[in-house]
Every structure is written in C-alpha cells, then in structure tokens.
Amino acid sequence: MRVSIIYSAALLASFTSALPTNSKRADFSDFSPDGKYFPLKNGFPTPCKDEILNIQKQAFGTLPNGPAPPALSPEGVTNLQLIALNELFEVAFFTELMYNISNKFDGYDTGYGHWYVMDTLNAIIAQEQEHLLNANGALMFFKQPAIQPCKYSFPVTDFQSAISLAAKFTDLVLGTLQDVNQIFAKNGDFDLVRTVSSVIGNEAEQEGVFRLIQNKRATSQPFLTTAGRDFAFSVLQSLAVPGSCPNVDVIKLQTFKPLNVLSTDIRAQDQNLKFSFASDAGVNVTDLSLVYINQQNLPVVTDLIDPKTDGGDLVFEAKFPFEEYIMNGLTIAAVVKGKGPFATVDDVAKVTGWGPGLIEVD
Hints:
The chain is α+β, with helices and mostly antiparallel strands. The chain is built from 9 helices and 8 strands. This is Late sexual development protein. It holds the Pfam family Ferritin_2.
C-alpha cells in the first residue's frame, strides 16, 4: 500500500536530492515494538562512551560540555525529571515511527519523501537521546535518581496519524518548557535557562517539519500557547502502559483524570465542541467549568452545556469562542471546579479535575 505525503512530490524530490550521501543512520534491524522499547541497540538510555560519540554524530552536535550549576532547587529537580520522562517517551515514539517507515508497513510508505523523512527522523531520535542524557546526567550529578523508561502504547495507525500526534505533543512540549524556564528562574536555577531555551528552539524546528508534512503553514501563532507541568505529566501518563513506569512516583506532579475531546475536524470558527469524562459519584456538575488556554492570553472560562450521563461518562458541549480570541494553534482544555476567573495556567491547574484536552486549529 502506497501512502503519499500531503505536500508535493516536486518539493520532496528537491529535499531528497539535497540529502548528504554519507549521513549516518541508526540500525533498527532488530527493533521490535512490543511496548518495551529500551534498551536500544546502542544501549540507550545508558549508552557507553563510544555510543555517546556515535549519538552525537547522528545528532549533528554534542552534549553541552560546560560546568554544572553550583546548586539545584527542589523545583529544578522536578523540572529535570519531567524533561527526562518526556524525552524517553519521544525517543520511543520516533524510534517506532522510523521502524514502521523503514519497513514500509501498511500506511507508512512515504513515497517520494522516504529518504528525507528517514534522514530527519534519524536526527530527531539522536537529538532527543541527547536531551535525555543531559537531563538524567544533571539529576545524577545532584545525586537524584535518573528517570527510567516506561512501556508505551501509541494511538496511531499510519504515518499521517503519527505526525498529527507528534505535532500535538510537540506543541504541548513547547508550552511546557516555557513553564519550566519560568520555574527555573523563580527558584534561582538561572544557569539552566539558556540550555532549555536552546531545546525550545530545537523542538520548534521539529514542529515546523511536522506542520509542513500536514500541509499547514510553517508557523501557527505569534505567541505560542503556554502550558503547565501537570498537564504535560498527565499526557505522558496517558501514553504509557499503566503501572509500567519504574520510578515515575518520584516526580512530584499531579496526574489529572482524562478529558476526551469528542469533536473532530475542528474549524477556525465559533462553534460548540463536544467533550466527555468518566463521571465520579457525587460530582456536582453545576460547580464545574470548562477552561481554554490559548496563546499567552488569560484562560477563557465557559459553562458546560447540556451535560448528560452516557453509561459511565458525562458528555457535554462548551462554546469555543474562536473569533473573539483568534484561537489558532494549540488550545488546552480542562474541566475545573469553580467559575474563575483565572489569571494564569497555574491557577487553572490547581483546580483541574479532568484534562488536558488538546485541540489544534489551523
């Protein structure tokens, strides 16, 4: 089965012809996606010194070699733990995607774009491996346990659904790293802000490629949607096999109950969106609100419209005021206790019961 990429064959041909012929590629010949992804062939997440050198060549750059900061705050520890958890997830996700593409499984034949996609993913995997080695290395330097990988289950069935998910979680990462940098700064961990800012740039480069593949304009918003650490932590837990994360309990963050976005093909217009969540006994629906977080704006609070119980789920609609706030790009939805108003994403997280629901509009 041949699945063509959305962008044009002519553009892909120009990308392919420009690839370096001596580009170093990872070997996935013995990779078997079964929920347990690690260790990889190169020993990751604990590669030897020689393999780290190979990872750096594959990543087209080295790990930072400057001195470690003199101290690390408790909140800084949590930041690095969350970063490490996310990087392990990303390495697993992109490794499986590359495995599927390299074997041209049904839905993963990228046609004329094959070598461009493979070369890009090869670099992304190594770069994410370096991000993990940097975060876990810092944790161990400060005598904190390295974060260990989970088993994962990715809800994708083909190349396009994989890229759509990659774009969505990358947008969330771009928002979460804003929060991480602010927390570093607030707690005196200034020496880590520059390094994390460089990672933000790397993730943004990846997102530009994912948007191109989806036939979207290269940039989504002038000020990217912010996010909180608890929202990212909850999403990462939802993509892991329950009970499979060896030491996730050391990360002192909240895991919210799932919020499902039932509406699909969401357009850039005012509309009602449909949501659901598993209803808890004794929950007073009149005390709940739906909050949208988009760009760098104040959270938008809306009512739950026509909530109904369907089996064990509470199903409802909520207004999506696109026109008033020009809500392009990523919007984070959360069901909260109370009616607000809320000044920051952190205030929303403090009262969130269910979330996040991730909405992309372009």
